[in-house]
Request: fold
Amino acid sequence: MSYRKQPKLLGARVRRVEDPRFLMGKARYIEDIELPGMIDAAFVRSPFAHAEILSVDVSEALAVPGVIAALHGQDLSGRVKPTVCDAISDGWQSSEFPALAIDRVRYAGEAVAVIAADNRYLAEDGAALVDVDYEPLTPLASVEAAQEPTAPLLHKGWKGNYFYRDRHAGGDPDLAFSNADGVLEIELATRRHGGIPMEGRGCIAVYDPIERVLTLWSSTQIPHLIRSELANCLGLPENRVRVIAPDVGGGFGPKSHLNPEEVAACVLAMDTRRPVRWIEDRREHMLACFHSREHYHKARVAYSEEGEVLALSAEVTVDCGAYSVYPWTAALDPGMSLFIMPGPYRIRNFRCETLAVATNKCPYGAYRGVARSANCLTIERAMDAVADALGMDPVEVRKRNLIRDEEFPYTSVSGFVYDDTSLIESLDKVCAEADYEGMRERQRLAREKGRLLGIGVVTFIEQTAPAVDEGVPINFRYDSALVRLDPSGSATVQLGTHSHGQGHETTIAQIVADQLTIPLDQIRILYGDTQQTAQGIGTFASRTAVVAGGAAHIASGQVRDMLAERGAHLMEAAAEDVELVDGRVTVRGSGTRGLSVAEVARATYYHPELFPFGWSPLLEAAGTFDAGHGTYANASQIVLVEVDPETGAVEILEYHIVEDCGRMINPTIVEGQIHGGVAQGIGGAFFEELIYDEQGQLLTTSFMDYLIPGPTELPDFRISHLETPSPTSPNGIKGVGEGGAVAPYAIMAAAVQDAIRPIGNVFVNELPLTPERVLGFVDRAAGRTDREARRSG
Amino acid sequence: MDDVLRQGVEIRLTVNGRKHREVVEPRLLLADFLRQRLGLTGTHLGCEQGVCGSCTVVVDGETMRSCLLFAAQMDGSGVETIEGLADDPDRLHPVQQAFWDHHGLQCGFCTPGMVLTAKALLEENPEPSGAEIREALAGNICRCTGYVFIVDSVKAAAETMASNAPRGESP
Ligand code: FES
Ligand code: FES
Reply:
């Protein structure tokens, strides 16, 4: 037998171990699960954005052959607790989110009743026959409408239509503003859109009346958190609620909530004693899967003649829709904005006021790059505005303001401790990779020929695996891993997180393989079943590589130490004299082959007599890793676009990315995460918009009118890496899941503005940059007021 | 409800080389027929509106969207789904193998549709350029990958398929 040293897997471009089942059509997504006796649910949804419910009549629906049960809000009232997800703040107003609307609907698409039938076709037939009598109320379909003094109040006991208002200040902004060489004001808007995974939401609820166990299969990123709130709503102990997340066809945040439909499906299952499946269609998804990104920012920026930003004062308003969602609360985006806006810059005076407005729109939830993309837009556009005001290059302005290497760890004006990053190096590197000087020259030559080329530059810092200790109902600082070595010497690792495209079955195995020195194919990574794994939190916020990776590293390190100790005992050596190399426990420097991991494992489990009495025969450990408030990744990007001033079309000619997510577990997977994140960001920058009319009707309910970027809309991204190890986490790992999605809004706004500069100066401040909006900016740049003027001009 | 909707239609068709004879409701979608009746759940529904391409199958040699077809229309047809490409991870189709080797998938939901569409492209155009690959896949949406590694995968599959093709024969 050869005695080869196992290469370190951390950092290797290992091919994903989970792929064959997906490639062969054998994955198990929620809709692929068949249970005996299963019936299908279809929801009746409100056609009104705001209305009283006068009555609900399900009798005709129940008469349809094959329809088995019906439920509406009154049936659940008093029996199922509504979700109350409150932030802890003086500026917070509490509200209830019932599984099915009881006496009032607050958004078009809100679930009012549910029908269960032998199959989905019959359930929809039944749902179409449910008779709901509504009394329409004034729809509040925008933040302005909701804040009118005459607007009806959306929730009981409220003083105004907002969930949350808060403020934060650091330094002395007033003094800095009065001493500044210049002050500028900007306003920005990012319109509502969302994560929109290719697989919609769905669940199967099963109740076992003998064991009194409720099982919910759900297409979710957060099985444990779902279990807690489901148990709370239904009044069950958590040991009788089991949540299983099977393969999930994309998460991105929208699948990190408890959905009201899931609670209703559980009640149906308890009532009918049949497994109840709910699989939403795309229209339901657009209407009712929680939306994101609707930010309105106003900012004042004080700067010096040298281009130093001295103070930032901002007002952040977020249209949070009708309800506060579990587990995030409606303070998710506005709350985070209070602290993250200064970004990677040395801004010492900062003030932010934030407002979470309640409107008659779909509730607001998490989406990859929560609050960061909008805040990156504001701070980066502020840098561009300062550069323009002073006639400086945008790269130069950034360099003058970026936190310098020697300042890390750096405490930001809002109190965040940035652990370590490569801000300036990443900006230098992306300029080199993109040949920034050369690109400017190409732009000049193209302009001479009448072509509108624009360059955008962005640099940002991102708190990965973030957590806060105050103000939130649940603090997400840690996650868990259980590592078990079996008698054959192979390992099973159970994670508290979930993988839905991120490749954790591979990356976490890479971490464990390095600890146990056994081959990758002897490690199995399991997750997604609350009955099997230790308490966990879930996958979101660029956290799993950090917290679950950290937990798996710690737990497998403990198992490695147990192996070494038992191996040493078997070889009659001192524990400190042995080492684990290439799957064998050997006495250091002895030149002997020692014992294989399998030999030690087998002896431990089946020959306890070989060890001192009382030594545990279990080679397993549970580990957690607490990342505190997180660890900071960073990136710089440069883009080159061309704008067609006649059609408003924007073509992305080049997209350069330098990212630093600390030490990479698997660079190929990192690159895939960046590609996907940037693609989604580009979607929000150019195409994706959930448009409501004044009545609160959603006008974009299909992929025909809500455009997701396809292969011909996206460029080949050019990525290179920096690796500044995290001082916070084991192995120096930082998160990378969201990073790609943070910058595209800011970079595209900058690039489009730069492209149309030969026509005139205009501040590009509203996204998505649809052809219509681009033409609007072209017109304003040219001093025309509308398209007509433009045509006749 | 109209009784005619409930009347069964008898169809005979071949799916992945196996003959089937089934009675279906006229309104049963081909996608639901494949998934529910035959248990071929590799065909996914991402929109049911004919836009996303997740439900792509091959009908009589042409890629089609199974969410826009009724099972009743399939009488006499031959249907190929993702499950027909390989039954062992060690014997994947070159397109599947290339997606694996080049990280052409993340959550995997769009993957069956992507693989079948890419395979059809390569059967027609064995040496596509990057732009041709993007054009051919334009009707398939992937929310995870940003397409870069999908394009790389298809290029790599083209190379393998070219080198596997018997000499002297056109591929
Ligand atoms: S499900 Fe058929 S095209 Fe989307
Ligand atoms: S891999 Fe998830 S949609 Fe394509």
Q: What stands out?
A: The first helix of chain B runs from residue 30 to 37. The CA atoms of residues 28 and 70 of chain B lie 6 Å apart.
